[in-house]
Amino acid sequence: xxxxxxxxxxxxxxxxxxxxxxxxxxxxxxxxxxxxxxxxxxxxxxxxxxxxxxxxxxxxxxxxxxxxxxxxxxxxxxxxxxxxxxxxxxxxxxxxxxxxxxxxxxxxxxxxxxxxxxxxxxxxxxxxxxxxxxxxxxxxxxxxxxxxxxxxxxxxxxxxxxxxxxxxxxxxxxxxxxxxxxxxxxxxxxxxxxxxxxxxxxxxxxxxxxxxxxxxxxxxxxxxxxxxxxxxxxxxxxxxxxxxxxxxxxxxxxxxxxxxxxxxxxxxxxxxxxxxxxxxxxxxxxxxxxxxxxxxxxxxxxxxxxxxxxxxxxxxxxxxxxxxxxxxxxxxxxxxxxxx
Length: 340
Fold this sequence. Notes:
CATH 2.40.50.140, 6 strands, 11 helices, five-stranded mixed beta barrel, Serine Threonine Protein Phosphatase 5, Tetratricopeptide repeat, alpha/beta
């Protein structure tokens, strides 16, 4: 008798499990082609997403009590209402913390209803949902399934994140990096990790000019979120700044070079060595002779011929025909007579 009751219980459990599997399979079939969009993108043009299955990453806030039963199909008897933040909202800032969206609804007979009831504030989840009504410009979102995303966010690491980013903006990078490391140690959600890795990479690029360290941070962020376009742009900057001979990006859109994917980027996979600084040349021991500056040769102007002065010719004295020597008179024996 006891074995018969045990078999009946096993059969009932099996049927219940098959029913749940069938419901889950129905959801996955309907939302297999669901596109992942952000909540801000959904709220920007809600009419374009009306009745379209989507996947939305959000952060759970708390249960709410917002119902418009006569304008929408959501009533408190059949649906459970909750509020959440967009995953892109900076909830560590007061302005971002206040930007909650209160129009999410889950059917109370949904097998996943207990999952939502157990959610804690700041928990990051990805929901499968669709807009089933718009009232006063606000889309009312019906949620049919959700999954928890890795990482923990709580008051403590939010305070660390707020203080660290504040110091980062004040250019107090040393203390900011220490707080960032504490946030990493607390195992935050993956989007927070990517944001911090990008902030550290920008610090290495623009402040330290250490492109290898920046590349390492970009690699870590890329392993978490390979679809982040900003990672490709920062990797291209590292590739560009580490090679001075590379030409800049053209200003016109038609001539702009396509961005190389991070997974195929040469400097990401096998970074080339950075250019070494040119060594300063030592002064030569030999003293260099001073350069003699040659003055330009001035051309002399031809002198005008001056008139010749007349030459004065002095007459030569006539010489006597018979030359006498003054000693001849002394040689002769002549008597000297007194004058009379």
